[in-house]
Design a protein that fits this description.
This protein has helices at 48-56, 95-100, 110-123, 139-151, 169-185, 197-203, 234-248, 258-263, 266-270; strands at residues 6-17, 20-32, 37-41, 63-68, 71-72, 80-83, 157-161, 189-193, 206-210, 217-222. The protein is an alpha/beta fold and 271 residues long. The chain binds adenosine-5'-triphosphate and magnesium ion. Residues 6-237 form the ABC transporter domain.
Length: 271
């Protein structure tokens, strides 16, 4: 690998929760090459959003080191864009104004700014809603505004935290295709957190499977399938099975015993 654009070196993160130390991430090491698409999958609470917050520079209290372009991350920067797990739009701003927030640190003229906003509204298919407010949008539309806001400054690194979680299956697939199209045009290094193994295989060059808390890397799987990927292909299917197995096989997991199931009241079993 040439010099990585992102590198996590021995990263660890502990939160103080009500006087207790909660270890969220332990010994996370990962290099990401320029232009690479990395997906991170893992169970709820394994530290995925925390990792993205550290990389974007929203939280600078951690062990180890995170480097972007060889420089230690010390705070947020225009070369990194993020789409959060929940859309976080400002209710008192229109679609265009919310997207415009992604450009606050960009040295653009007013005309360039407006053009950029218009282009990205079109990209996410919301031209008719330019002046709408978030409460006038569906959940999926609001998420598309958040995606446009994350992309509008043309970041070199895009961080996506479950960006398509609230979308219906069809829109979700359209947005996945759109994301690949955007990446084909501009070589954006992308880190995607997702619960959806299929989404990870459809999009990513590598999938990082996390262990449950404290978050550690369990396995990194290369996805060598050529694009456009066919969800129905045998190879796709096989990778999905492999990743699901990695995710579900947990040494501490105790399957319920047959006797325990038999002892439960019928109503419980029915639900
Ligand atoms: N600000 C915080 N203060 C205290 N604990 C936190 C904070 N943020 C996250 N945590 C804890 O860190 C752990 C990892 O949280 P995180 O949000 O990164 O998980 P996640 O993998 O993104 O989960 P999900 O898939 O449910 O979004 C959790 O146990 C959570 O309770
Ligand atoms: Mg999360």
């Amino acid at each position: 690998m040439t010099a990585p654009i992102v590198s996590f070196n021995h990263v660890g993160k502990t939160f103080d929760v009500d006087g207790f130390e909660l270890e969220a991430i332990r010994e996370f090491n990962l290099d990401i090459a320029e232009g690479e698409f990395v997906a991170i999958v893992g169970s709820s609470g394994c530290g995925k959003s925390t990792l993205l917050r550290l990389l974007i520079g929203l939280d600078t209290q951690f062990r180890g080191e995170i480097r972007v372009d060889g420089k230690a991350v010390e705070g947020i920067g225009g070369e990194r864009g993020i789409v959060f797990q929940e859309h976080r739009l400002f209710p008192w701003l229109t679609v265009a104004q919310n997207i415009g927030l992604g450009l606050v640190n960009e040295p653009l003229s007013e005309a360039q700014r407006q053009q950029r906003i218009t282009d990205f509204i079109e990209l996410v298919g919301l031209t008719d809603f330019t002046r709408a407010y978030p409460h006038q949008l569906s959940g999926g539309m609001a998420q598309r505004v958040a995606i446009a806001r994350g992309l509008v400054a043309s970041p070199r690194i895009l961080l996506l935290d479950e960006p398509f979680g609230a979308l219906d299956a069809l829109t979700r697939q359209q947005m996945q295709d759109e994301l690949l199209a955007i990446r084909a045009r501009a070589k954006i290094t992308t880190v995607l957190v997702t619960h959806d193994v299929e989404e990870a295989i459809f999009l990513a060059d590598r999938v990082v499977v996390m262990e449950p808390r404290p978050g550690r890397i369990k396995q990194v799987v290369d996805i060598a399938l050529p694009h456009p990927r066919q969800r129905s292909s045998f190879d796709f299917h096989q990778l999905r099975e492999e990743l699901l197995h990695e995710l579900i096989s947990d040494d501490h997991y105790q399957p319920p015993l047959r006797e325990q199931i038999r002892d439960l009241p019928l109503a419980f079993i029915a639900c």
